[in-house]
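User: I'm writing a tutorial on reading structure tokens. Could you give me a worked example: one chain, its sequence, then its tokens, then a sentence or two explaining what the tokens reveal?
Assistant: Sure. Here is the example chain.
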Amino acid sequence: MGNAAAGAEKAVGINSHATSANLGEERGYLVYTIRVMDGNSNSHKVIVDPGNGRVLFDQSIFNDQEKHSNNNVVYRYHDHHHDNNE
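And here are its predicted structure tokens:
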């Protein structure tokens, strides 16, 4: 579990630290679920394969909805369509 936590911290980035870890089932697979706090105090859920230590999934979780009320979308889409005749 220590290696899984270390891998999760590395995946999230510099100055991150694991806050919890458990072994359980996710979508029919046995995995480690690691909660990691990054250097900006954002929480991440990281799923790690217990067999090889590979990070399978990393998701940012915004706990402070007021602080992130306009920024709680992980993926932003930008419209690059414009009329060149203007």
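What the tokens reveal: The radius of gyration is 17 Å. Helices lie at 2-12.
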